[in-house]
Amino acid sequence: MTRFSGVTPSGNATLGNYLGAIRRWASEGRPGDLYFVSDLHGMTSAYNPQRLRVLARELLANLVASGIEPDQVFVQSDLLPQLGALTWILECTCSFGEAARMTQFKEKSNRRELEATPVRVSLFTYPVLMAADILLQGADEVPVGEDQAQHVELARTLARRFNGAYGDAFVVPRAVTPPAGARIMDLADPSRKMDKSARDAAGVLFVMDEPDLLRRKIRRAVTDGLGRLEYRPAEQPGLANLLEILAACTGKPVRETAGGFGSYGELKEAVTEAVIEELRPVRERTQELLADTAELDRIRARGAALASERGAHRLAAARRLAGVG
Ligand code: TRP
User: Fold this and answer.
1) Residue from 146, 116, 123 nearest 42 by CA
2) Does 41 sit in the ligand 1 pocket, CB within 6 Å?
3) Distance 85 CA to ligand 1 centre (A)
4) What are 21-36's pLDDT values in tens digits?
5) Is any ligand 1 atom within 6 A of the Cβ of residue 303?
6) 194 neighbors 204 (Cβ within 8 angstroms)
7) pLDDT per residue over 46-63, tens digit each?
8) What distance in angstroms lies between residue 306's CA and the mean position of ligand 1's atoms?
9) Which of 34, 276, 46 is nearest to 142 (CA)?
10) Cα dihedral sign for 252, 257, 259, 263?
11) 107-127 pLDDT, tens per residue?
């Protein structure tokens, strides 16, 4: 059983990425699991190459610092030759209509068109690269958020189709959606998910933020004028989000977190302390890893070697069956 997922370096890791995905990957880690930094996916819209490189490295360090085994992480671009080859084979397995139906593509391409920025072909083919990520590693379980479930479904369709048409090369994967909860919203706009690539980071808590900065952002978090300390996500989304964060950091059920505070200010104090303590070990370990260039290079090279070894026979089989190897 291989569980497999990726995180795209479109920005620094947020508290939402950590609580909603990375922390769970680390705590549920089993020997065959594999996690990666999907830097190639960060190229589907205008980006800065130097920043992409730095972010990919920091995210890799975040994954290891969070407790994922160093042998179970890699950076996607280290497998570029294999992934490029498999993406082509899978593009020849995928219909135009299937790719055009992807909700994320429709939304993102609409937005780009409204902003009059060009839509890159890679934005369209990105789910096929994602399928290549998954199928190359023979993953069977892919934990992703709702927004990525359709892409995993496509990977599943392509695996089945290829196996049926040419012969068995691929494990057929399925999406596993993590249990509800820990959907962390932007502190300045609780109707929006906390997003690492948000333009305005005032309401985004980053894993690498210093305690002082976390404190300031949480103090300014949007709440309401009701002065009622209860968990009511529909009426009091800002407050509910703070309670969710507190619950996720302390391990208590969210409905039990509201009691005991005299004011919103007191609650914010408690959230601040909980977030600082939750992130401190990850931030400090990440800093150590980033400072130890040789060690991080070694982890990265080993992760790449293991993942590429693991994928080699599947790519070879797919090429042979497809008549191009
Ligand atoms: N597209 C995913 C995201 O933006 C990241 C990702 C890329 C991924 N390849 C993957 C996740 C393969 C799971 C499996 O969140």
Assistant:
1) 123
2) yes
3) 18
4) 999 999 988 899 999 9
5) no
6) yes
7) 999 999 999 999 999 999
8) 19
9) 34
10) positive
11) 999 998 888 889 999 999 999
Distance (Å, whole) CA 58 – CA 25: 17
Q: Whose CA is nearest to atom 6 of ligand 1?
A: 6
Q: Quick one: CA torsion of 101, 107, 113, 117, rounded to 10 degrees?
A: -110
pLDDT, tens digit, 9 for 90 and up, residues 197-228: 988 899 999 999 999 999 999 999 999 999 99
The predicted pLDDT at position 181 comes to 58
Residue at 255: amino acid letter? R
Catalytic residue among 108, 217, 252, 268: 108
Distance 64 CA to ligand 1 centre (A): 18
The per-residue pLDDT for 33 is 96
- DSSP letter at 41? G
H-only helix segments in the chain? 15-17, 23-27, 49-65, 80-91, 96-100, 103-114, 121-136, 146-166, 211-219, 237-250, 264-291, 293-322
> For the residues 248-266, what does the mean pLDDT come to?
92
Q: Of 193, 217, 252, 268, which is the active-site residue?
A: 193
- 251-274 residues labelled b (16+ CB within 10 A) or e (exposed): eeebeebbeebeebeebbebbbbb
Query: Mean pLDDT across the chain, nearest whole number?
Result: 95
171, β-bridge pairs = none
40 lines ligand 1 (CB under 6 A): no
pLDDT-above-90 percentage for the chain: 90
pLDDT score for 182: 62
How far away, in angstroms, is 135 Cα from ligand 1 center?
12
Q: Is residue 196 flagged as an active site residue?
A: yes
> 127: Cβ below 6 Å to ligand 1?
no
pTM reported for the whole predicted model:
0.95
All structural domains of the chain: 4-181+293-322 (3.40.50.620), 211-287 (1.10.240.10)
252 classed as catalytic: no
